Amino acid sequence: MKTTISLSVPAEVEAESLVAVVLDHAEPAPKEKDKKPQLKVAAADPVVQSVVADLLASGELTGKSCETNLLHKPAGLKAKRLLLISGGSAQKFSGYDLRRIAGAAVRALKTRGIRSFAFVAPPGIPAEEAVRAIVEGAHVGNFDPDYYRSDRKDQKIDELTIVTSGNTDKAALDKASAEAQIIGESQNFTRDLVNEPSNRMTPTILGERAKKMSAEVGLKCEVYGADKIKELKMGAFWSVAQGSDEPPALIVMRYEPAGAPEKPLLGLVGKGITFDTGGISIKPADGMEKMKYDMAGGATMIGAMRAIALLKPKVKVIGIVCATENMPSGKAQKPGDVQIAMSGKSIEIINTDAEGRLVLADGLYYARQLGCTHLVDAATLTGAVVVALGHNNAGIFANDDDMYERFHRANAKAGEKMWRMPLDDEYKEQIRSSIADIVNSGGRWGGAINAAMFLKEFAEDTPWIHLDIAGTAWMEEQKPWIAKGPSGIALRSLVEFVRSFAG
Ligand code: BES
Ligand code: MN
Ligand code: ZN
């Protein structure tokens, strides 16, 4: 999608469609039923305001978020159409909402065969922030995962113009737009990887995609196989990989910009289970097809490394993806087996379906061996996090409050929702084993925390964040702003987090 900034008056912009945001300025009423929406268009242009005045006054609109109205040949506007899109309450309106309605505008227009439009940045949000939100949200909306349908329409928006008057520092706005485009494209790159089914996204193929991307953006990338995994004594990673005929891949991407200090060295570690059958502790058939997205954490790290390489912050980053299938077979590990992780810790396998924490245990330890001073992992780790937080917030765990605060700020900036979960020492009880150092499954209660406690054993004293994206990496249904399928969650926060170290 080509994006340009325009400082013109909205009415003067020539476009297939102009898009303007409608906000509800009603004061909170004591009774919901007494509440009448007070709708105003968020555009400081009297011509736009007069075109929509009657519609907004008609009482026909609810003003609920993502409600749309398309007007043809709007009087006084150079644009062929005017799409009104509601952003909900004016008081609560933020960059988070703006991303959503930018995505919704893209989806509303592209299904009508429109390929280009101009979005009027609402004056209430600082211009640079608005530009970022609109460009990122528009990219999210532009993605559709139906590649394998013969009747795929492949409708997309090719050109987006952002009309803004809030800040006339055009260079700063152009930069914001270009950076947001890199992030949006990287998020969609990740979504493409996640969307592929497991027969088309084996660990080997994931490694090849990481290599190809790395060559394109100037990252160093090594992809190691079973020999190296065994040589490194990654007994936890290998215990999962041993059950599959498909070779595993240990993907290591390095971003080492000239002039960056030796420290910090950030480590991004992703779970790359290209299919999770559960292994010998096999999963029920119902819904198992979805376990193709169990490599979303890994794909997120590959996409984040792409964005980082293109944005060029002055900080060193290593991306590590532990990719394998989790299969039942004559070679598969069995419940009761004891494995020795790379760190030397012994693990009693209670449930072979708790495989993500096994591959990450070695991934995190390896990152520390490579000198990482700060760690972040992302993983579709537990069903329990979906029970706890549903599909709207990813779970965030941290062994260090400063690290959490920093990530939280990045989160807010990136417009992604995550909720912190506890990691008190008391939970350690849950993963105690009578025959080894720890068990790999602490049982049902607090399942997401047990999994995080397990990882914490391998992050040890290195500041570390764990993101459990099991409930958020896949949209169960389409929304006005995003297709059903892979969401690309966490990439934007990760990129902001990395940039926060670059001063
Ligand atoms: N990949 C799953 C977690 C998952 C569940 C991801 C739902 C996406 C949607 C993970 O490997 C797993 O199987 N976890 C088990 C752990 C249990 C055996 C301790 C779970 O959550 O049931
Ligand atoms: Mn599993
Ligand atoms: Zn899994």
Describe the 3D structure.
The strands form four sheets. An eight-stranded mixed beta sheet has the order 8-9-11-10-14-18-15-16, with helices on both faces. Strand 6, helix 3 and strand 7 form a beta-alpha-beta unit. The chain is 34% helix and 21% strand. Ligand BES binds next to helix 10. The site of zinc ion has 5 residues, from strand 10.
Summary, kept brief:
The chain has 503 residues and is α/β, with parallel strands linked by helices.
Which keywords apply here?
503 residues, alpha/beta, 7-stranded mixed sheet, 21% strand, elongated, binds ligand BES, binds manganese (II) ion, binds zinc ion
Overall mean confidence score, pLDDT: 97
What share of the residues lie within helices?
Answer: 25-40%
In percent terms, what proportion of residues is strand? 15-25%
Rg from C-alpha positions? 24 Å
Lay out the secondary structure.
Elements: E1 2-6, E2 18-24, E3 39-41, H1 46-57, E4 68-72, E5 81-89, H2 95-110, E6 116-120, H3 127-142, E7 159-163, H4 170-195, H5 203-217, E8 220-224, H6 226-231, H7 235-241, E9 249-255, E10 265-276, H8 296-311, E11 316-326, E12 338-340, E13 346-348, H9 356-369, E14 374-379, H10 384-389, E15 394-398, H11 401-414, E16 418-420, E17 438-439, H12 447-459, E18 464-468, E19 474-475, E20 485-486, H13 491-500
Parallel strand pairs: 1-7, 2-5, 2-6, 6-7, 10-11, 10-14, 13-17, 14-18, 15-16
Antiparallel strand pairs: 2-3, 4-5, 8-9, 9-11, 12-13, 15-18, 19-20
The structure holds ligand BES, manganese (II) ion (MN) and zinc ion (ZN).
